[in-house]
Structure formats: C-alpha cells, structure tokens
Design brief:
The complex is a heterodimer of chains A (426) and B (270).
Chain A lengths: L13 H9 L2 H9 L4 E3 L8 H22 L7 H10 L4 H29 L7 H23 L4 H12 L8 H9 L6 H29 L18 E3 H26 L29 H9 L9 H14 L4 H4 L11 H22 L6 H26 L9 H6 L3 H8 L1
Antiparallel strand pairs in A: 1-2
Helix pairs in contact in A: 3-5, 3-9, 4-5, 5-6, 5-10, 6-7, 6-9, 11-12, 11-14, 11-15, 14-15
Chain B lengths: L1 H30 L5 H5 L20 H13 L22 H9 L2 E5 L6 E5 L23 H4 L3 H10 L6 H4 L11 E2 L7 E2 L21 H16 L3 H30 L5
The chains are: A mainly alpha (426), B mainly alpha (270).
C-alpha cells in the first residue's frame, strides 16, 4: 500500500526494464525504502532508531558469522577458543569486541525505539501488528543475547545459564523436568553449550524474518509521526529517499562514532570481569548479575521474596518478570485514548516520564546486591511498573482530557494548511 | 473486558509485592542495614597506578613489560600459570627471535613425540604456550593470563593487592570469628579480606633488572601489573591505533553526511 501521490518505479535502462518484468525486486526496494515510500515530513530524531536497529542486526550477523568460523562450541575448549580469537585470529579482537559491544548498543537502540513507541502511541490502531511483531523481535533478541552470552563459557556465562534456566524450576510439577530438557542435563554442560550455539546461530535469522514482517506491516498504514495525526495530503509527506535516507545516514555516522568509542577504547566497560574467568561449576560468583540490558527485569524477578498464599515467591517473581514484558502485547487494547501522541496527553505524559525514571531505578537495583536498601527500592519501583502498565494506562486513557490536535501534519509544521482552510469553508 | 482483567492482574502482582515489601521492610527496620567485616574494611577503590598503556593513545612500555616478565618468571611463576600466552608472543616485548628461543628452551614441555607418539619431556619451543604450573599448597592460584581483565579494578587492583598486605586491624584480630585464619593473609584490597597467597613481593631486590632499574617492592608490583595488562590484552596497541583511524574517519563521514542532510532538507520545513 502507499499513498496515491507516491512515486511509481519507472526503470529507464533496458536491463532494469527487463528485470522489472521478470523479478520486480528493484520495484520492491524502491517502494519500501526508496523514493516510492512517502513518510510524514515531521519525524523527529526518535524515528531514526528503527533504521539504526536494522543496521545493528546486520553488524551482529556479519561479526557473528566470522566469529562462528573460529569458535569451538565445546565446553572443554570454548573459553580458550574465544581467547584464540582475541589473540591469534587476524582482527579477531575487532570481531569479538564488535559483536559484544554491538549487542549492547543494539539493546540501547531498541530501548529507545520501544520508548518512542510508548511516548508517541505508535502501538495504536491501525499499527497494532507492527507493535506486536516488535515485541516478538524484542523477546527473540533477549533469548539470542542470553544464549550468546553463554558461549564464551566464562563464569558469568555458566552461572547465567544456571540462573536463567533455573527460572523454569519455579513452575510446579513440570519445572525440574523442563529445566533438564532445556539444559540437556542436570546442570549446564557441553550439551547446553552446543544447543545454545546452534540456537544462537539460528535466532538472528528468525529475527531478520520477523523484522521483514515488521517493516511489511509498517508499510500498510505508513509511519506514525510526533503529532499522531494521520497523513492527509501530499503536503504532509516527503519521499523516504532522499529525505530520510539522508537523515538516517548522518545519524548512522554518529552511531558509528559512539560504537567505535566503545569497541576501541572501552571494550569491556559493559561486560563483567568474571566472564574472563573460565566456567567453574564448583564456585559460585559472589554476585551473579546479567548484562545491563536485563537489569530492570532482574530487579523485578528478585522483588518477590515472600510467598503469596500458596504461590512461592520464586514463582511470583518469574511470572512477574514474564508479565512485565508480555503486558506490552496488550498495550494497544489497554490504552483506549484516541489520541496517539503523549504531546497532547498531559496526564499520560507525566506517567510516561515516571515510567522512564522507574525503569532506570529498576536497572540500578538489578545490578546492586540483593540486600537492603536496594530490595526496598526495587520493590517500590516494581510496584510502580505494574501499576503503570496494568492499571494506570487503562484508567488514564478513560479519564484524561487531551489537548486539541492540529488539523494536519502540515499545519503542525507550517502553522497553516490550505487543506484545513478548504475543510473549514466546506 | 481486557482492561478489567489487566487491572485485576496488576492488583494481583501489586498485592504480592506489597506483602514481600512489608515483610522485608519490617526485617530491615529491625535489623538495619546489613553489615559485615568486608563492608567495613574492604577497600573497593584500588591505589592509583599510571601506565603508559592507559588512555586512548596508550602504548606499551616495552622495557617495563620485560621487567614485569622478569618478575613473573622469578616470582609469580612458582604458583601461577600463564597458559593463554605463547613464547612467540614475547616478540611484542622486544625480544629477538633467538632470545625467545632461549627463553622457551629453559622450560620443559610434556608433549607428544612426533616419532614415537609417546608423551615425552622436551625443551620448549617458541610455538609452545607457557606450561601448566603444579601447585601443592593451600588455595587455587588462578591463571594470570587474563587477570587484569578478570578482576574489578584491573591493573591498579593487581598492583594494590600485591602491595596491600597489612596487619589486621585490632577490631577484627581480637574477634575469633573475624581473625585471619592460619595460612591466610590479611589484605584489605581482597574482596573477602583474607587471601591464601603469601605476600609475594615481600622484599626488595627479588629480581635483578638488566636495565638497571632498582627492584623495589613497589617497582616490581608496578612492572608485573603492566606486564599482566599486556598478557590480558596483547592487541591493545592495534586497537588504540585502529580506533583513532575509525573514529576520525567516521567523524569526517558524519560531518559530510550531515551537510548532505542539510542540503536535502533545505527548503522543506519539518
């Protein structure tokens, strides 16, 4: 789908005409990310993170494939083969640091992309499917990142595998069997490492597939925009190329600078020192912490310390941690406000910023040791997290009085819109 | 309907949390903040250590690495292995090919004899990695190859630990529960305060430096810390240099593409 005024692909070179008649791949690209895709003219820089996330996925796949050529997924030599990559493989250190820091920056970009969605109501009709697929991508990313973290077979790798598969033992009856089935044994071992390697190679391509669906579904209604007002006329849009290729292009350069600063000057700043100690099943690390992008969810998990009626605290924590993400799936139906953008939603906007602070606090608690006062802080922050999504979002959308919306994107940008004058006359 | 279910689910989790919070906070109110000898006496921030390899333009000081290697060989290697490092890697410290051959040949490597297929002792070759170290004493001396990356605080931590042995404070020493057990040694830089490692650099002059540097305890600790930065990150110089090129090139590309962006959008308000 596309707006009626979108440019059509018209090949001029005979070879391209020939190709277009037989396999219209250039036409597809032209319509998807070329001059044939009309995009609202008023997108701000928060709309750059989707493109950047796609770039991150490509970086991860390319560096990952090279790493897989040199890595040995065997628990006896996995740690040493990682060091072999760091020391003896030409540019191996660049591939590995690029991959590990690339994963972290991928999450940073995705979190900004997701919070853009929360602020501007990108999940609302008619864009629910884009949002649902986005949450699927995020879940796949979490699984992929976790399994990738296990591969170097350091102390944190091993104990992350132990702790995370341990979540499943919280489920009654099937829990222990489920954990053994996932690990391929009673504790993480070679079978675990092998299957995690296999899945870690597979899942990025599954992500790529879902990303294609995500973009496909985006192209049905077209991109949302900071006003949340739908596109009404040609004046509201500009072609993706060259306008947004140029805008995305220069921020990609900026991203590459920041990425370079991490890879070349602080490559281990986002990692944990314990992962440079080979895995040792006989020695539990003093503080088992996940990578920073999982800290908020780790804090939620640990906040449930007491059983509720017949439900053990551990099960509550595991359910809460899953619910904390799964609730995003129903955001389009929890938030019934007809206004998309928080720019025009004074009450929701306040709660949104409270959520941002709340998630940062949860992150801080997630990396802190499980003792007071961090437990109390994490518990209060978790209460707000659940109140926000499960209670505040549905209620606010019913009671809030939104501010008046501009007639169109053009009016929001220029202060006036010829279409609006016509509509007023008619 | 979905909103009613959502609010009920939210209340369910919040009730669970309030219950956990109430129980934990009551315990917190009666017990106060957790305390332990580690919290009180462990020094989290290591002493300052400035090395030539620090910073974005840092390069290794080869003379210092050679001195540090000397300390490793004479002192640390009694108990600690260095298995990620091969003798051939020592070229990066400025040793000549012949010198490396001589260093490697001083060690005995147990390896498969290519003629008979039996495991046999032979002199080391440049291609060999540093051999495993058999240690019979108390504790498990870690391999040192990655130690400066495997400990919070990095090289300054290693330096602080080596020079941080001290007499135990009276408060801990007088309490039988916190007194350093026999065979362990008090060191406030070590996370649990009592370390099995005997103070390794107990006296000046344990090593004779060929470059004339005076081998004080402090100097030896600094040198071996610098050496262990290299063993953990032998590609540090290449990384710094490539990074300079990369960041410079990308800044240039960013400026150009920003100008292109301005050019494309000029005349289009947004």
């Amino acid at each position: 789908m596309s707006f009626p005024w979108a440019k059509q692909y018209t090949p001029s070179h005979p070879a391209m005409v020939w190709l277009d008649e037989r396999l219209p791949l250039p036409r597809l690209i032209y319509g998807a990310v070329g001059a044939g895709y009309e995009v609202p003219r008023n997108l701000n820089y928060f709309w750059n993170f989707g493109f950047m996330a796609g770039l991150c996925l490509v970086i991860q796949i390319v560096t990952g494939i090279v790493l897989a050529m040199h890595f040995a997924p065997n628990s006896a030599i996995a740690f040493d083969s990682t060091e072999h990559i760091m020391r003896d493989v030409n540019w191996g250190w660049l591939m590995r640091y690029g991959h590990s820091n690339g994963a972290a920056l991928f999450f940073a970009v995705i979190y900004l992309h997701i919070f853009r969605g929360f602020y501007y109501g990108s999940y609302k009709a008619p864009r629910e499917m884009i949002w649902l697929l986005g949450v699927v991508i995020f879940l796949l990313m979490m699984a992929t990142a976790f399994m990738g973290y296990v591969l170097p077979w350091g102390q944190m790798s091993y104990w992350a595998a132990q702790v995370i598969t341990g979540f499943f033992t919280a489920f009654p009856l099937i829990g222990d069997g489920l954990k053994e089935w996932l690990l391929g044994g009673f504790a993480p071992d070679n079978a675990t490492l092998n299957r995690f390697f296999s899945l870690h190679f597979l899942l990025p391509f599954v992500i790529l597939g879902v990303v294609i669906l995500h973009i496909w579904s985006l192209h049905i209604p077209g991109s949302s925009n900071p006003t949340g007002v739908e596109v009404k006329s040609k004046a509201d849009t500009v072609p993706f190329h060259p306008y947004y290729t140029a805008k995305d292009g220069w921020t990609v350069g900026l991203f590459m600078v920041i990425y370079g600063l991490f890879v070349f000057y602080m490559p281990n700043s986002m990692g944990h020192p314990d992962n440079y100690i080979p895995a040792n099943p006989m020695q539990t690390p003093a503080h088992i912490v996940p990578e920073w992008y999982f800290w908020p969810f780790y804090a939620i998990l640990r906040s449930f310390t007491q059983p509720l009626l017949f439900i053990p605290g551990k099960l509550m924590g595991v359910l809460a941690m899953f619910a904390a993400i799964l609730v995003w799936f129903i955001m389009p139906w929890l938030d019934r406000s007809p206004v998309r953008s928080a720019k025009f939603r004074p009450l929701y906007r306040k709660f949104f910023w409270a959520l941002v602070v709340d998630v940062l606090v949860l992150g801080y608690c997630g990396v802190s040791p499980p003792e007071q006062p961090y437990i109390l802080l994490a518990q209060l922050a978790t209460i707000y997290y659940f109140a926000h999504f499960f209670i505040i979002v549905p209620l606010v959308s019913s009671i809030e009085r939104p501010e008046p919306l501009p007639f169109s994107i053009t009016e929001a940008v220029l202060g006036h819109d010829g279409q609006a004058a016509l509509a007023a006359k008619g | 309907m979905i909103r009613i279910f959502s609010i009920l689910a939210g209340l369910f989790f919040i009730v669970g949390l309030l219950w956990s919070t109430a129980v934990d906070t009551l315990a917190f109110a009666t017990d106060g903040l957790p305390t332990s000898p580690e919290k009180e006496f462990h020094i989290e921030h290591p002493k300052a250590l400035s090395l030539k390899s620090d910073g974005p333009f840092g390069k290794f000081d080869k003379e210092q690495l050679q001195r540090g290697f000397g300390v490793y060989r004479e002192v640390c290697a009694q108990c600690h292995s260095l298995k990620q490092v091969a003798y051939r890697d020592l070229a990066a410290l400025g040793y000549s090919e012949n010198a490396i051959k001589a260093i490697a040949a001083k060690t005995t490597i147990n390896a498969k004899d290519p003629l008979s297929g039996e495991m046999k002792d032979r002199p080391g070759l440049p291609a060999d990695h540093f051999p495993p170290v058999v240690y019979g004493g108390k504790g498990v001396p870690p391999d040192l190859s990655l130690i400066t990356k495997a400990r919070e605080g990095g090289a300054p931590y290693v330096y602080s630990l080596l020079t941080g042995y001290a007499a135990q404070p009276a408060k801990l020493a007088n309490n039988p529960e916190t007194k350093t057990p026999d065979g362990l040694h008090y060191n406030p830089y070590f996370a649990n305060l009592n370390i099995a490692m005997v103070p390794p650099l107990a006296a000046d002059g344990l090593v004779t430096y060929s470059d004339g540097t005076v081998a004080t305890k402090d100097q030896m600790a600094k040198d071996v810390s610098a050496f262990l930065v290299w063993t953990a990150e032998p590609k540090l110089e290449a990384r710094h240099q490539t990074g300079f090129m990369w960041v410079g090139l990308m800044l240039f590309v960013t400026v150009l593409s920003f100008l292109a962006y301005r050019n494309v959008w000029s005349g289009t308000k947004h």
